[in-house]
Structures are given as structure tokens and as C-alpha cells.
Specification:
The complex is a heterodimer. Chain A is built from twelve helices and twelve strands. By secondary structure, chain A is of the alpha+beta class. In chain A, strands 4-5-8-6-7 form a five-stranded antiparallel β-sheet. In chain A, strands 9-10-11-12 form a four-stranded antiparallel β-sheet, sandwiched between helices. In chain A, strands 1-3-2 form a three-stranded parallel β-sheet, with helices on one face. In chain A, helix 6 runs antiparallel to helix 9 (173-179), helix 10 (281-287) packs antiparallel against helix 11 (294-304) and helix 11 crosses helix 12. Chain B is an alpha+beta fold. Chain B has two domains: 47-123, Roll (Ubiquitin-like (UB roll)), CATH 3.10.20.30; 126-208, Orthogonal Bundle (DNA polymerase, domain 1), CATH 1.10.150.120. Chain B has helices at residues 13-26, 29-33, 35-48, 71-78, 134-141, 151-164, 170-176, 187-203, and strands spanning 2-4, 10-12, 50-56, 59-65, 97-100, 103-106, 119-121. In chain B, the strands form two sheets. In chain B, strands 4-3-7-5-6 form a five-stranded mixed β-sheet, with helices on both faces. A two-stranded antiparallel sheet of chain B has the order 1-2. In chain B, helix 5 (134-141) packs across helix 8. Chain B is globular, with a radius of gyration of 18 Å. The chains are: A alpha+beta, B alpha+beta. Chain A binds chain B through residues 1, 3-6, 34, 36-38, 41-42, 45-46, 54, 56, 58, 83, 106-110, 112-113, 244-245, and chain B through 44, 48, 50, 66-68, 70, 89-91, 94, 97, 100, 103-106, 109-111, 113-114, 157, 160-161, 164, 174-176, 178-180. The complex binds flavin-adenine dinucleotide and FE2/S2 (inorganic) cluster (2 copies). The site of one FE2/S2 (inorganic) cluster has 11 residues of chain B, from loops. One FE2/S2 (inorganic) cluster is lined by residues 86-89, 91-96, 106, 108 of chain B.
């Protein structure tokens, strides 16, 4: 690991000022906020991330560590631990997709350490990104190329890819947030602002090293999930190589607004298959006003992957992802509330 | 773990390891092989060493550390607490599991500087006097290990899982312990040990 200085943030504006010293917010920005450190320290040990200065934001827990469930919705502080949100009774009851996406992520130890703010900014598990002995990685070293496109790309994305990058977004919680139309609250040098969660992550395009729309130094302070009758009929289905403690090969976050067996609105997000947290709008449109049965669910699965682009080793993600969407829809429909 | 081995001999594995470490330190092999590297490490430590105060197993420790030092390396290399093991050093195996303010956490992905002001418990802090913790005893009773490398992490994780209240059946134990890998695949006996300890610990109401 390269040398760095470590400081703790005692108030939020101070953390923002310190982190804003970075010229931009890309993967290798020299100043990094640190929450649980489970992404950051791992990538620092691998020499992928090389910050010169770490600003520990966990002392801000007193201010940004609260969970509030109100009739308007759910407010989650950015320093809430993954385990705290996963175990919260009101979240488990009223927003099961949120609780399940967190409970099925990582391990109990990691969920105790990791915070929600850091969670949504976790970095891809692309093996070429994580191993600097491969010189080609546009995310690490802009302009160097992409080793994954002609490499072993079994884990990589089939949606939202570009010619510069096919790295998959590997987190789970973000799928629940994007499906439920959540908002992310941030604090920057100009004060607080709110961003639709769907606008937080940027498609790789030609600049895969710039992963979010955050300005340098901007601190995520929390998430707001609006209430709605669909949040209770929601579920997270995660398919992985082993039953527990593994990243998604394909996952679906689903929330259904139903009128009997007819779909008023289905909210569907996909994980493990796309470069960013992914909303499957085509599948949602196809289901609106239809009776939800196996045939409709299967069609929705197909629609979700209509624009998939596959590579050497990841073509299996298309049928796997289609089946995951279909199964998640039927599971949400079958929930007894 | 200090105590008596299966043959009834008194021994201290930690004392043995400490002696080993000191003996190795007295032979500056690495320095001779890589004089430049050694000098650089020292220069970095000298310019960036920071005072760190840690509370471990109820005792306070004051150290001067390079900010890069993980809690795991601090325990093992600076404090002689070699119970927490380094398996992967990347947060993947659970061998380094300790409790931080009562929650199970990975010492290899925790910076020592960031553990200040918190209360750390390691496997060395689990036994009360000469009595093993019920989870430690259950691991022995159920023969829940082969090489034993993952065992301290498994035990720390199991103690937390039981107090989290999710050790009610084998499926929950498997899920709750999935962050602790066992290369010897002693899993069936580990699950049996955790279930045994859970029954024991939840049968009697916990003392405050
Ligand atoms: C072995 C392993 C298995 C895992 N399995 C899964 C899994 O199955 N599913 C899953 O979803 N995740 C998984 N993860 C990823 C894990 O969930 C993330 O590492 C974790 O959530 C990141 O949170 P953190 O607080 O530790 O972030 P940190 O590592 O502290 O920070 C990550 C990044 O976010 C930035 N940051 C942190 N907090 C803020 C903030 N408040 N505002 C702005 N920027 C901030 C940091 O600067 C850094 O760049 C796994 C990780 C490991 C190591
Ligand atoms: S050594 Fe910490 S998880 Fe493997
Ligand atoms: S007993 Fe050998 S690794 Fe678990």
C-alpha cells in the first residue's frame, strides 16, 4: 500500500472541504473519503486506488446514521451500516426489497463495517480492473484499453457497455434504490443538493474512470425512498455461483403495483448484468395494464435483455437474467401481504 | 489459547509464537537481503508514524504506527496477539474476524488508526479466567476443525451470530457463518458446534 495521511472528519462541511482538494472525482482521485473501508482498503492493497489522503467520515454517524420510516417514505443516513438497515423491522416489513438486497450482500462481518454511502460507490469486481499487472484498463488508466473485452469476461456486463469498458456494477442495494425511485442527498461546496438515484451513476461511454455525477468532495449524506403501495410487494432475487457470500451473476429487484392480477406498474431493476444500476424500462412498459402470469413474466424478461451485447464468456447472462426477471416478478406477485 | 492440550500437557501456543517472532527478529535477514527496501520502510514510518491508542480485550495499548497498518497487523505484529489469522488479507475469508464494539468485523480491512476509541475483542479475550467460552468448548467437543487456521475467526463469528439471535437452525447458521471460509471443509462439524453452543447460551437467560 502506498503511504497516505489519515484524518477524521468532525463535521460534514469539513469533510467536503478536505475531499474537494481532488481535481476530479474519478477512480484515482488523490483524496478519498473512507467509510467502512471495505472497498477502498481492498483496492488500496491491490494498488488500484492510490489516495494520498484519507478522510474518515464515520465520526459523522451521529448525524447521518439514522433510519426514519415515515408515511412519506424511508430516509436512510449514508453512515447507516448495511447490517442495521438489513435488520430494521420497518424496512423488512414495508420495503422488503431494500432489506433483502442488503441481507444477501457480502458477509455479516462486511455488512457490519460497510456503510450505505460507500456501498453505492463500491467498485466493479472486474478482475482486470482489480489487477494492475494488466496494463489495459480504461477505468484505472484512462486510454489504456480494456483487457476484458477480449479477455475472460464471464462476470462482465451485457447491458450499458461501451467499446471502452464492459465492467459490471456488482452491488445489490443500488438495484433496490433505483427500482423504488429513490433520491440521493449530497453535500457539496455549494451546499446540499438531491439527485435522482438513477442519475448518480454514469454509463461508461468513453470515460469509464468517471463513475458518478458527484463533484469532487461531495459527501453522500443519505437516501430517500418514497412510500407507495408497491414497496411492500417487492422482492430481491439474486443468482450467484454459491448460495451465500457471492456477488450476483444476475439479480432482479422488483416492486409491483397491482390491481388484482393486473399490473398497474411494475418497477424492475437488474444487477450483475449491467455496467451501472439498471432500470428495465422496456420490461416495465410491456407489463403495464397486463395480467401477470408466467407468459407475461417471461416476455418481460426477454424485453429486459432486448439490447444485450454479449462477449466471449458472458452470453449465458442473457437467458439467466431473463429467467431471473421472470421468477422475481412471479415471486413478488405470490407474496401474501 | 493457553491451557492443556489433548494429551494433558500444559502449553502456551502464544508464548511459543512470541518466542519464534523474537528469534526471527534477532536475525536481520531481510535487511541484509534488501537493504534499500528496509531503509525506505523506515523512512516512511519515521515521517508518517502516528500515535495510536487501542483498547483490546479490556486493556489499553499505546503505539506509534504507520497509518497504513491494519488492525490485523497491529494485533499480530505489534502486540503479539496472533489468534486472529491472516488468510487472504482482502476481506474474503473471515480468518481475521474480531469484535469491534461488540460487532464482528474483519481486522484485515480495518485501519488501526480507525479503530481508536472502540473496544476490540479478539479470540484471546474470550475465555474467562481458565474457563473456555461455550463456543470454544463446543468447537472442541464437536471436533469442528482440522488444521485450525480458520478456527479463531469461526469462533469469533459464531459468538456474534449467537448474540445476534440468528443461530436457531442449521440453515441460519450456514447463512450467518458464510463469511468464514474453511479450507479443510470442516463445515458440518462447525455447524454442529455453533448449534450446540447456541442451545447452551440461549437456554440460560444471559447475565446482564
Ligand atoms: C469479499 C467481499 C464480498 C462482497 N460482496 C458483496 C455483495 O455480495 N454485494 C454487494 O452489494 N457488495 C458486496 N461487497 C462490497 C461491499 O458491500 C462494499 O465494499 C461496501 O458496501 C462499501 O462500503 P464502505 O463503507 O466500506 O465503503 P468505503 O470502502 O469506505 O468507500 C467506498 C468508496 O466510496 C466513497 N465514499 C464512502 N462513503 C462516502 C460518502 N458518504 N460520500 C461520498 N463518498 C463516499 C469512498 O471515498 C470510496 O471511494 C463485498 C465486498 C467484499 C470485500
Ligand atoms: S484475512 Fe481478513 S478476511 Fe481473510
Ligand atoms: S480447519 Fe483448516 S481451514 Fe478450517
Amino acid at each position: 500500500m502506498r503511504p497516505f495521511t489519515y484524518e477524521t472528519a468532525t463535521d460534514a462541511p469539513e469533510a467536503v472541504r478536505a475531499a474537494a482538494a481532488s481535481a476530479d472525482a474519478h477512480v484515482r482521485a488523490p483524496v478519498q473519503l473512507i467509510g467502512g473501508g471495505t472497498t477502498l482498503l481492498d483496492l488500496m492493497k491491490l494498488d488500484v486506488m492510490r489516495p494520498e489522503r484519507l478522510v474518515d467520515v464515520t465520526p459523522l454517524y451521529a448525524r447521518f446514521g439514522r433510519i426514519e420510516a415515515t408515511p412519506q417514505g424511508l430516509r436512510l443516513g449514508a453512515l447507516v451500516r448495511m447490517s442495521e438497515a438489513a435488520e430494521h423491522p420497518a424496512i423488512a416489513r414495508d420495503y422488503p426489497v431494500v432489506a433483502q438486497s442488503l441481507a444477501q450482500a457480502a458477509s455479516a462481518q462486511l455488512r457490519n463495517m460497510a456503510r450505505l454511502g460507500g456501498n453505492v460507490l463500491q467498485r466493479t469486481r472486474c478482475n482486470y480492473f482489480r489487477d494492475p499487472s494488466y496494463s489495459q484498463c480504461n477505468k484505472r488508466d484512462p486510454g489504456s484499453g480494456c483487457a476484458a473485452i477480449d479477455g475472460f469476461n464471464r462476470l462482465h456486463a451485457v447491458l450499458g457497455t461501451s467499446e471502452a469498458c464492459i465492467a459490471h456494477y456488482s452491488g445489490d442495494f443500488a438495484q433496490a434504490l433505483i427500482a423504488l425511485d429513490a433520491t440521493v442527498e449530497v453535500l457539496g461546496r455549494q451546499g446540499p443538493r438531491a439527485i435522482a438515484f438513477a442519475d448518480l451513476h454514469r454509463l461508461p461511454g468513453r470515460t469509464p474512470h468517471i463513475e458518478t455525477t458527484l463533484e469532487p468532495g461531495e459527501l453522500i449524506t443519505g437516501f430517500v425512498v418514497p412510500a407507495g403501495q408497491w414497496t411492500r410487494r417487492s422482492t430481491y432475487l439474486k443468482v450467484r455461483d454459491r448460495e451465500s457470500y457471492a456477488f450476483a451473476l444476475a439479480s432482479a429487484a422488483v416492486a409491483l403495483d397491482m390491481d388484482g392480477d393486473t399490473v398497474r406498474h411494475a418497477r424492475i431493476a437488474l444487477g450483475g448484468v449491467a455496467t451501472v444500476p439498471w432500470r428495465a424500462r422496456e420490461a416495465e412498459a410491456l407489463l403495464a395494464g397486463r395480467t401477470l402470469d408466467e407468459a407475461a413474466a417471461t416476455e418481460a424478461g426477454r424485453a429486459a435483455f432486448a439490447h444485450a451485447v454479449v462477449h466471449q464468456n458472458n452470453a449465458y447472462k442473457v437467458p439467466l437474467g431473463q429467467a431471473t426477471v421472470a421468477r422475481a416478478l412471479l415471486a413478488a406477485q405470490a407474496m401474501r401481504l | 489459547m493457553e491451557g492443556t492440550d489433548h494429551a494433558g500437557r500444559g502449553f502456551s501456543r502464544r508464548a511459543f509464537l512470541e518466542t519464534g517472532t523474537l528469534a526471527a527478529a534477532a536475525v536481520p535477514l531481510a535487511a541484509e537481503a534488501r537493504p534499500g527496501a528496509r531503509a525506505m520502510d523506515e523512512a516512511v514510518a519515521a515521517t508518517t508514524g502516528v500515535p495510536v491508542m487501542l483498547r483490546i480485550n479490556g486493556g489499553e495499548h499505546r503505539l506509534t504506527l504507520d497509518p497504513r497498518t491494519t488492525l490485523l497487523d497491529t494485533l499480530r505484529e505489534h502486540l503479539g496477539l496472533t489468534g486472529a489469522k491472516k488468510g487472504c488479507d482482502q476481506g474474503q475469508c473471515g480468518a481475521c474476524t474480531v469484535h469491534v464494539d461488540g460487532r464482528r468485523a474483519l481486522a484485515c480491512l480495518t485501519l488501526a488508526v480507525a479503530a481508536q476509541g472502540k473496544s476490540v475483542t479478539t479470540i484471546e479475550g474470550l475465555a474467562q479466567g481458565g474457563t473456555l467460552h461455550p463456543v470454544q468448548q463446543a468447537f472442541i467437543d464437536c471436533d469442528a476443525f482440522q488444521c485450525g487456521y480458520c478456527t479463531p475467526g469461526q469462533i469469533m463469528s459464531a459468538v456474534a451470530l449467537i448474540s445476534e439471535g440468528h443461530a436457531g437452525n442449521a440453515a441460519d447458521v450456514c447463512e450467518g457463518m458464510s463469511g468464514n471460509l474453511c479450507r479443510c471443509a470442516a463445515y458440518p462439524n462447525i455447524v454442529a458446534a455453533v448449534e450446540q453452543a447456541a442451545r447452551e447460551l440461549t437456554a440460560v437467560p444471559k447475565a446482564a
